[in-house]
Amino acid sequence: MPEGDTVWRTANALRTALNGKVLTTCDVRVPRYATVNLTGTRVDSVVSRGKHLLIRVGDASVHTHLKMEGAWQIYAPGERWHRPAHQARIILATEDAVAVGFSLGITEILDRNQEDSVVGHLGPDLLGPDWDSAVAEENLRGAGSEPIGVALLDQRVMAGLGNVYRNEICFLRGLHPRTPTDRVPDLAAVVDLSHRIVGANKSRHVRVTTGDTRPGRQTWVYGRRGKPCRRCGTRIREELLGPDQLTERQIFFCPSCQPLTRD
């Protein structure tokens, strides 16, 4: 499941493959941008902003978002792709590399001066040079009575957290995900943990929050419904939580280690 650390690693890989090189192929397989052709233009930079990717090519910016199923993969010219061609949304190639964006949730070509329209709403990037813990804490405090498990997924608060991290952060701080944010005793500690836990995983291909990289041991609660809590042995529960029914996602928690506090 792509989260900020996945996007950060993807940006690094794309940067290595494309930065400073002239595109020999630009094939955008999205009807709205099918006539866009950046061939012959140099790639100036690749940056990640939370879960968003920006590939800056001349005056254009290729904006993509992985959503749930998307991935960028890099191949040598002529190498067989690992995913079906019908899933390709965009292909950017140079003389020595082919970058293919598969099943991307968002693929659009913007004027570079329009980037703020797609990433300007984001809070401080947990893995970016703009990280500011004080601003993130202020943003989180602004969530008021909204459940902490909802506020942590709000990219306007801080950019980069996804469902795995929100569940693990809540467990590690002893917070039930439904706890109103304004009832959380130490929001600064939540922000600090968010920054540290994502930073610790940015160079790993396997996301680990327990410190144990062995299969089946990497998370405290996420994906562990019905299994014993690693701390107290109580069975992990799974429910749905979101700002509305359309955006509800799974929460995992230990009823003993994470008691619900409403007042």
TrEMBL record:
Residues 220-259 form the FPG-type domain. Belongs to the FPG family. It comes from the Bacteria. The lineage of its organism: Bacteria, Bacillati, Actinomycetota, Actinomycetes, Mycobacteriales. Its EC number is 4.2.99.18. InterPro entries: FPG_cat, FPG_N, H2TH_FPG, Nei2_N, Ribosomal_uS13-like_H2TH, Znf_DNA_glyclase/AP_lyase. This is DNA-(apurinic or apyrimidinic site) lyase. Pfam families: Fapy_DNA_glyco (PF01149), H2TH (PF06831). It comes from Rhodococcus globerulus. Keywords: DNA damage, DNA repair, DNA-binding, Glycosidase, Hydrolase, Lyase, Metal-binding, Multifunctional enzyme, Zinc, Zinc-finger. Residues 2-101 form the Formamidopyrimidine-DNA glycosylase catalytic domain. PANTHER family: ENDONUCLEASE 8 (PTHR42697). The keyword Secreted does not apply. It is an enzyme of class 4 (lyase).
